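Quarterly update from the structural biology core.
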Amino acid sequence: MDEVYKWLKSYGLNDTEIKVYACILGHPETKVVDIQRQTGLVRTTIYYTLAQLKSGGLISENTQNNIKTYRAADSAVLKQNIESEITQQQNKLSQFDGLKTIFDQLQTRKPDSASFVARYEGIGPIKQAIEQAMRCESKHWYIIAARDNFLYHTSKQYKQYYLAERKRRGITAKTLWEPTDDFRPPSVEDMFYRNPRRLPEEFLGAFKSLVILYDDTTLIIDPYGQKTAHAIHNATSTQLLRLVLNLIWKTAKQSP
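Predicted structure, tokenized:
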């Protein structure tokens, strides 16, 4: 029964709907009084839930001698509903494929104001912000990264994708890493694509953010636990930060 409950939950029914449906499923020609006795639900809730289940085609109603009884629909109805939903989603996907270019154009279009701040909440939106950075015109980033940053907590698959996608797009960077004890000497590939150097010791433990400067934008990704990020689109402030980071990078150590 637990497996049936989990499946009905994934199908979209809430806990109350599952209780009523399971009661009817196990007792054909069930009356409201029977449902109330077995579930402990009040009648107003039962009547509302029955209406929801009927509208979904999951149960049928029969009236005889002014007494209404309920029976669960054949399991084939569930299958038909799922197949119909799949068809609808496939149609939506096909329509979206035809509109994707328009969505991308609207998404990447800058606001009328030359300066603005975009806020991202959640892992998915933050990854979208990184994707926007991947599409930078300059093909070059300035990065300042704490050891315990957002990327550090992402999956191995995403880390591999992140590095591979940067390489595929030809994005080089000047990177400043927190001066931790496990700072490793950069590889030849690191030197070409990432150019990592150690921040001064004063930065150790002082921050947990990941900052990416690209084009006229400063992307600040907060610690992983906060799951927020802000993209500051302002040419003047980004250029100022770029000058400061470049100065620090030039004087920073390449290896321990």
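The chain has a mean pLDDT of 86.
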